[in-house]
């Protein structure tokens, strides 16, 4: 069975040897657990989850399309709409997020360019105080979803300032989660090359 042990170990900045020491085993065993060369029992999953401070189910390998996909597009006013078809991202771009969410910028909005890809780290409201002043996505109890600079946050509402100048603040009532942006992926136009003799 494939697991996400390596993903969470690297997020915590641990080497295989350091995790092995915490588990009372060898780095070779950790390596085999990470690469599915060894059967991972429930006991191992519980011990590893405890050391990495994640849930046991977080260690189970989820389908790649759900972990590595851009599923929404940001538009004017901090509006976020679902994409008709998800866009895959390489797993390495998600390394800074514990619970990655992927979004695409649908048009140039302030400092963001059309086509930019954003990876955000979804967190519970209780963990999100440090996200104030950062560009975030916010999800509400009624299914509201918005994007912008997080200006206000409490249990009743959050206020987001969309990235384009002159936009009105977006309010999400009864926010359930906040996802600060942790990675920006941007493609620049290629440089035109001239061929000798032209």
Task: Provide an overview of this structure.
The protein is an alpha+beta fold and 198 residues long. Helix content is 21%, strand content 33%. The longest helix is centred in the N-terminal third of the chain and has 11 residues, at 42-52. The N and C termini lie far apart (57 Å). The relative contact order is 0.13. The model has no long low-confidence stretch (mean pLDDT 85).
Low-confidence stretches at least 5 residues in length (pLDDT < 50)? none
> What's the oligomerization state?
single chain
Number of helices: 6
Strand count, sense and barrel status of the largest sheet are: 10 strands, mixed
What Rg is obtained from the alpha carbons, in whole angstroms?
Answer: 20 Å
The chain-level structural class is alpha+beta
Helix content: 10-25%
Q: Could you spell the SSE succession in H and E letters?
A: HHHHHHEEEEEEEEEE
Overall, the morphology is globular
Number of distinct beta strands: 10
Q: Calculate the mean pLDDT score and round it.
A: 85
Distance between the termini: 57 Å
- Relative strand content: 25-35%
């Amino acid at each position: 069975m494939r697991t996400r042990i390596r993903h969470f170990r690297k997020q915590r900045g641990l080497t295989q040897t350091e995790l092995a020491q915490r588990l009372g085993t060898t780095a070779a065993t950790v390596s085999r657990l990470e690469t599915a060369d060894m059967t991972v029992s429930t006991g191992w999953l519980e011990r590893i989850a405890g050391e990495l401070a994640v849930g046991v189910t977080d260690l189970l390998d989820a389908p790649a399309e759900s972990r590595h996909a851009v599923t929404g597009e940001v538009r004017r006013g901090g509006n976020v709409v679902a994409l008709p078809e998800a866009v895959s991202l390489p797993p390495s771009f998600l390394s800074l997020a514990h619970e990655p969410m992927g979004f695409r910028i649908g048009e140039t909005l302030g400092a963001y360019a059309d086509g930019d890809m954003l990876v955000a780290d979804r967190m519970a409201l209780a963990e999100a105080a440090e996200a104030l002043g950062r560009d975030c996505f916010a999800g509400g109890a009624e299914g509201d979803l918005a994007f912008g600079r997080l200006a206000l946050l409490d249990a009743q509402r959050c206020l987001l300032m969309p990235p384009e100048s002159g936009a009105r603040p977006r309010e999400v009532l009864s926010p359930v989660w906040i996802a600060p942006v942790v990675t920006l992926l941007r493609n620049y136009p290629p440089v035109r090359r001239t061929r000798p003799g032209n």
